[in-house]
Amino acid sequence: MAIKVAYIFLKSISVLKNIPLFATDAFYFNKNQPIKAIGKLYFVKISSEIKTQKLETVPNMEFKLQDVLDYNEFSTTTTPLYSIGAVG
Description:
The protein is an alpha+beta fold and 88 residues long.
């Protein structure tokens, strides 16, 4: 629910103030490492597809905002990704 509210808020500001809005996935900020979902399930990015995968060893997850962003990694398609299957 929070992603939907944040998206509506940011998209509204973008339209009203004529500010471009860019988006990328979280893997850009953690060097494509798996991201914790629930239990032993992790979100992983294989090629350009995001899936859930069961991992026995816990990977080192560190998110970091780079000093300089590569705008080639961002898109103007900012609709949240709701197509990821249910985590269970």
